[in-house]
Amino acid sequence: MTDQPTPAFPAARDRHDQLAERGLALRDGDAIAWLGRRGFWCEPRGPLHLFADRLLDGPFELLRVWHTPARLGRTPDGRSGSRSETLLQIDGAVVLTSGSQSSTLGPGGVALLPSDGSWVLDGAVASARIEMRTRYGLWPSDVADRRIETLEAGSTAFREVLVATAISALSSSIHPGDQGFVSFRQAVESLMTGLPELLGVAEATTPEEALHRRALELIRKEAADPDLTVTTLAARLLVSRRHLYRAFAPHGATPLAEIHAARASLARERLDLHARDRGVGRHEIARRSGYRTVRAMNEALRTG
To answer: pTM of the full predicted structure?
Structure first.
């Protein structure tokens, strides 16, 4: 991103992972290629027609789509990572399959899709739905982890609010690069956190709790990277530093302290592991634990 605004749009619109697609009308190979760019394979049951509106902001995706009968699915390739995903069926019935589990979703139905693993959507008739995706960790870890959670067709006020919110945004001219879009995205994510309770599979969590959980996962995973800072962590999670600190506050912690603690833990483990291995010196242990110098590691261990 550049600090210099362009005459037409805010600079944020130049991000490759931010886009708005509206009024898409695709057929056959073009429709299959578009689905492929989104990480889906597709097997049409005949001539394929697809109409869609879409907003994309990093891992956050809001989509309204209608297509003729087809079988399509997602197979994680390791690049896209895990997601919190939900489908709101609007028209037509589809069968969702993950592993040995199959569920039929009719108009009014809601489904939470597996955050890990593959799943397939099979529609014998033309169907329409709204899809919502965002970062992993929005729901408790035992919800829709490797299975599909569904709510049969029903007219709940909460579902109606979700549908109305999505349709309103997709029918407007809002773009992920616009000022205020981050707040809109966070509002949608806040609504999505209520879905497990709606489906009766878990109590609702808050966006801050989900953010805290995801941040801790990233810290544990990337503490050995010396470039991991509160700023880069916030950027990875698509939130501001202030928002990130707010998520940690109820736990009496800060993201910076957790990063320091994770690195110190790595260093202690490696020092114990290589205590009698002269082939691995303190400089190498410091490097593998996320410290740029042995002195920085020693000071962290002394103060920790």
So the answer is: 0.65
